[in-house]
């Protein structure tokens, strides 16, 4: 698990493509401190397992599923990535609970300066927007952010100068792909209530009486 508070920006130092999967070598410094083989490091929000350690880098296997669901497959040599080690339970949770399992991708639609902050508009499909709510949490390339507004095709976040300086979010160009991980609680609630898009019918069982019976009031 992660918090979405980026520790440093690393770079892609190597990539070896297999038939469908890849092995990446990611350069970093801070995230390598006390890191062992088998540890997890969030890379642009994707939970990767360290398979080999170098002096200033680590190797990780990237499965076909990960390449299909994230922007890691489009990384070029020297490309910059957000890095965060797995959280420790004896530290403050500065962001929100992030699993490192990407739900899908969005695209940078607009940047807008607002005094010392920058508004970012990101387009996303309905299968993701159903879990994105105003004032809720979202992880964008592994960065924990608060959703400011949501409409039928996109959502907005606002980032402070520190976040802009310590991550790669403001390095993205319009149209660039970003990894998105929605808040995990909403997905569990949906599944437990039988409201998954795959099972949901026109007549929902969700009602005020149902919620009262199950302790929501």
Summarize this, please?
It catalyses: 2 6,7-dimethyl-8-(1-D-ribityl)lumazine + H(+) = 5-amino-6-(D-ribitylamino)uracil + riboflavin. The protein is mainly beta. Helices cover 14% and strands 38% of the residues.
How would you explain this protein's 3D organization?
The protein is mainly β. About 15% of the residues lie in helices and about 40% in strands. It contains five helices and twelve strands. The strands form two sheets. A six-stranded antiparallel beta barrel has the order 1-2-5-4-3-6. Strands 7-8-11-10-9-12 form a six-stranded antiparallel β-barrel. Strand 3 (about 40-45) and strand 4 form a beta hairpin. The longest helix is centred in the last third of the chain and has 9 residues, at about 185-190. The radius of gyration is 18 Å and the shape is globular. The protein starts with 7 loop residues before the first strand and ends with a helix. The relative contact order is 0.16. The model has no long low-confidence stretch (mean pLDDT about 90).
């Amino acid at each position: 698990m992660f918090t979405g508070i980026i520790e440093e920006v690393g770079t892609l130092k190597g990539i070896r493509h297999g038939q469908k999967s890849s092995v990446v070598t990611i350069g970093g410094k801070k995230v390598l401190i006390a890191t062992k083989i088998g540890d997890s490091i969030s890379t642009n929000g994707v939970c990767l397992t360290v398979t080999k350690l170098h002096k200033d880098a680590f190797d990780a296997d990237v499965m076909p599923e990960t390449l299909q669901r994230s922007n890691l497959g489009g990384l070029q040599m020297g490309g910059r990535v957000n890095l965060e080690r797995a959280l420790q339970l004896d530290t403050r949770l500065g962001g929100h609970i992030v699993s490192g399992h990407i739900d899908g991708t969005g695209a940078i639609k607009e940047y807008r300066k607002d005094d010392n902050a920058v508004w970012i508009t990101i387009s996303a499909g309905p299968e993701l927007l159903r879990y994105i709510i105003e004032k809720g949490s979202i992880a964008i390339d592994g960065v924990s952010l608060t959703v400011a507004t949501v409409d039928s095709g996109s959502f907005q976040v606002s980032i402070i100068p520190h976040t802009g300086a310590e991550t790669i979010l403001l390095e993205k160009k319009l149209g660039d792909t970003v990894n998105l991980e929605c808040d995990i609680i909403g997905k569990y609630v949906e599944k437990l209530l039988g409201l998954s898009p795959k099972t949901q019918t026109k007549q929902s069982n969700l009602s005020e009486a149902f919620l009262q019976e199950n302790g929501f009031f």
